[in-house]
């Protein structure tokens, strides 16, 4: 399988990361955001990712670093995998499934959900 071009990554990123920087920053400050994800007792992987996503979204496409492009690829993969698992049948709004996706910049109850 060949690697995706940066144009392909960019398009998927723009489609899947549907939270704006300020919205994501405010979310990351909540207890709900901090309550989900894998961690070793410190900040969860998803929470760390959310902070990186805010920086990426505040960076001009032409100024993104190789590390940021790599993270964008990781984020797109995570969102696709998590969405393919499907969410809970009831109370999606307050589910850990949604909270985890939101830490990665995707709110599944916005727009088309898990596109």
Task: Explain this structure.
There is one protein chain. The protein starts with 5 loop residues before the first helix and ends in a 12-residue tail after the last helix. It is globular, with a radius of gyration of 14 Å. Helix 1 (6-16) packs across helix 5 and helix 4 crosses helix 6 (96-103). It is built from six helices and no strands. The mean pLDDT is 90. It has one domain. The protein has helices spanning 6-16, 21-28, 31-34, 45-57, 66-84, 96-103. The chain is mostly helical.
What is the compact description of this entry?
This protein has 115 residues and is mainly alpha-helical. The chain is 55% helix and 0% strand. The mean pLDDT is 90.
List the main descriptive attributes of the protein structure presented here.
115 residues, mainly alpha, 55% helix, globular
Indicate the topology.
Blueprint: H1 6-16, H2 21-28, H3 31-34, H4 45-57, H5 66-84, H6 96-103
Helix pairs in contact: 1-5, 2-4, 4-5, 4-6
